[in-house]
TrEMBL record, chain A:
Gene Ontology molecular function, alphabetical: phosphate transmembrane transporter activity
Protein name per UniProt: Phosphate transport system permease protein PstA
GO biological-process terms attached to the record: phosphate ion transmembrane transport
Major localization class: membrane
Membrane-traversing stretches: 36-56, 92-113, 125-146, 158-177, 231-250, 270-297
NCBIfam families on file: 3a0107s02c
Automatic annotation (TrEMBL), chain B:
Keywords from the UniProt entry: Cell membrane, Membrane, Phosphate transport, Transmembrane, Transmembrane helix, Transport
Span of domain ABC transmembrane type-1: 69-281
Family to which the UniProt record says this protein belongs: Belongs to the binding-protein-dependent transport system permease family. CysTW subfamily.
Protein name, as recorded: Phosphate transport system permease protein
NCBIfam families: phosphate_pstC
Length: 306, 293
């Protein structure tokens, strides 16, 4: 369905020489058509060019600040001594905990919708609900996490409270990715498994999930990359801006890279802004690497599926 | 027999995971409603919507959400003004002009724009875009909705372009062939045949982009300022609903005070807006799918 125009006959291309014989209107239409083509190319790349300009600008500001000390030092009130060790350690903790919480839940829910759910009002409601949850602003998840995980469950401002909050935030993305991946598994695989006498769950466990794993993994990595870049929900649950220690367990207080960047960006001194630029380079590297891995996995998986 | 029980057990577990998502929604509604309820016992709902000042953290307290709302709508409008023309042009170009190979390689690149953490965009808006704009607009304040809105617009370009393009791709090719057969150019076909046919899909993409912009936090928190102001002037500092929630969360407001509860009142206002937009888009999407499949 998506490839409707792939096989489409090319639109009529008129040669320039023909134009002299054509009416004024036709020539004008052709000119508009050609102009729009260049406008389209320009629009396609303008966002990327602006982003590239931003990144170069930031690299110039921050690259000189990145060294071993910056990566392994605690934050400090003196900008030139401050480092991002607690921030990236916190981000790593959050990444791992969020994955552990959200992956089993998201995959289980995705499997249920694709393989088990029958047409019913309840299931329809659940599907509408997931679509809606995907559109809830992240800061609202922060308010939920603050009250439910922070206060009600007593996790306070710990890594666990942050990870649960972010896990709920990315759950809809993982569910949708799981469903798409399962949909792409050819039905012949299921039929062969049933033919050999396997039960439904055995078929899912040994045939469907392994075949869909590439797609699920891609979606999960993309959603985790989003979680690593999130700031607002963690601010609301009370993640600290100044953390002079490396968290050693899930109940410890924490900060993450985006929080550290936000904190440094809000300060008036230029030296802290340089620190922010340097930390942004590290965060962008993490984001781009995760996205790169996801795209690579997706391409490989799609080839294997064919 | 035991096999059957295992199967049943697993199905139950999977269903439970799926049902957990509804608990999230119930949790959000419960938290926002219960705290807002107490808030509106102390502050009249009429004052909330008609008062033109928002100063819960000051000595003289006023609880009018309007300045936060106008701030939110202002940055959103600027973002859409940037993202809509660019995003639609990209969608038409990729769907109707570009080769399939080009489209396939460009789409993941455009997605990068939405993958960059928003705190990074906030830094760009504050440190790169505002100084650049100050060179053109002399009166531009250091914090303003213009640069925050523009940068937010860049971020949501792929949201509009990708979904609009999908909608255009779903238009049956017979419509294109008929148009070309009548001697129309690709430009005429795109704008007079394909766009109207894909209209509901395009509207869905724009609604979702608006919803995303309304809920966006870090760009506006960093670059648009923290001054609730009832204005549509894009050159001065304002405050959005999301920024206010961040501001209170960073400060040391006592839990249980009316100041603390303002974030739930602000939160539910935000939730109502995004929920309404998401519901409309979901409903439109359903109808639009039925048209073509």
């Amino acid at each position: 369905m998506n490839n409707a125009t792939d096989t489409l006959i090319p639109a009529p291309r008129t040669r320039v020489t023909d134009l002299t014989q054509r009416s004024h209107t036709a020539r004008r239409n052709h000119l508009i058509d050609q102009t729009f083509k260049y406008l389209g190319v320009a629009a396609t790349f303008i966002g990327l060019i602006v982003l590239a300009y931003f990144i170069i600008d930031i690299a110039i500001d921050g690259i000189g600040r990145i060294d071993w000390d910056f990566l392994t030092s605690l934050p400090s009130r003196k900008a030139e001594k401050a480092g991002i060790l607690p921030a990236w350690a916190g981000s790593a903790w959050i990444l791992a905990l969020t994955a552990i919480i959200s992956l089993p839940l998201g995959v289980a829910a995705g499997v249920y919708f694709e393989e088990y759910a029958k047409e019913s009002r309840m299931n329809h409601l659940l599907e509408v609900n997931i679509a809606n949850l995907a559109g809830v602003p992240s800061i609202i998840y922060g308010i939920l996490g603050l009250e439910v995980f922070g206060r009600l469950m007593g996790f306070g401002e710990s890594l666990l409270a942050g990870a649960f909050t972010l896990a709920l935030l990315i759950l809809p993305i993982i569910i949708v990715a799981t469903r798409e991946a399962i949909k792409a598994v050819p039905s012949t695989l299921r039929e062969a498994s049933y033919g050999l006498g396997a039960t439904k769950w055995q078929t899912i466990k040994w045939q469907v999930l392994p075949a869909a794993s590439g797609g699920i993994l891609t979606g999960t990595i993309l959603s985790l990359s989003r979680a690593v870049g999130e700031t607002a929900p963690l601010i609301v649950i009370g993640a600290l801006a100044y953390v002079p220690f490396v968290p050693s367990g899930p109940m410890d207080q924490f900060t993450v890279l985006p929080m550290q960047i936000f904190n440094w960006t809000s300060r008036p001194q230029a030296a802290f802004l340089t620190n922010a630029a340097a930390a942004i380079i590290v965060l962008l590297l993490i984001t781009f690497i995760m996205n790169g891995i996801a795209i690579y996995l997706r391409n490989r998986w799609q080839k294997n599926l064919k | 027999m035991s096999k059957k029980i295992t199967e049943r057990f697993i199905e139950g577990g999977l269903k439970l995971s799926a049902s957990l998502t509804i608990l999230t929604t119930i949790g959000i509604l419960w938290v926002l409603l219960s705290e807002s309820f107490i808030f509106f016992e102390e502050v009249s709902i009429v004052e909330f919507f008609t008062e033109t000042r928002w100063t819960p953290l000051f000595e003289s307290k006023h609880f009018g959400i309007m300045p936060l709302l106008t701030g939110t709508l202002l940055t959103t409008a600027i973002a859409i003004a940037v993202a809509l023309p660019v995003g639609l042009t990209i969608a038409v170009y990729l769907s109707e002009y570009a080769r399939p190979g080009f489209r396939k390689s460009v789409k993941p690149m455009l997605d990068i724009l939405a993958a960059v953490p928003t705190v990074v965009y906030g830094y760009f808006a504050l440190m790169t875009v505002t100084p650049a704009l100050q060179a053109i607009i002399p009166g531009l304040s250091g914090f303003n909705s213009l640069s925050a809105g523009i940068v937010m617009g860049i971020m949501i370009i792929p949201l509009i372009s990708s979904m609009s393009e999908d909608a255009m791709q779903a238009v049956p090719r017979s419509l294109r062939e008929a148009s070309f057969g009548m001697g129309a150019t690709r430009f005429q076909t795109s704008f007079k045949v394909i766009m109207p046919a894909a209209f509901s899909g395009i509207v869905v993409s724009v609604i979702l982009a608006i919803s995303r912009a309304i809920g966006e936090t870090m760009i506006v928190a960093i670059a648009a300022g923290q001054q609730p102001r009832l204005t549509f002037d894009p050159t001065v500092a304002i405050e959005t609903i999301t920024t206010y929630i961040v501001q209170v969360s960073l400060g040391d407001v006592a839990h249980g005070s009316v100041e603390y509860r303002t974030i739930f009142a602000a939160g539910i206002t935000l939730f109502v807006f995004t929920f309404a937009l998401n519901t409309i888009s979901f409903w439109l999407k359903k109808r639009f799918r039925e048209n073509y499949e």
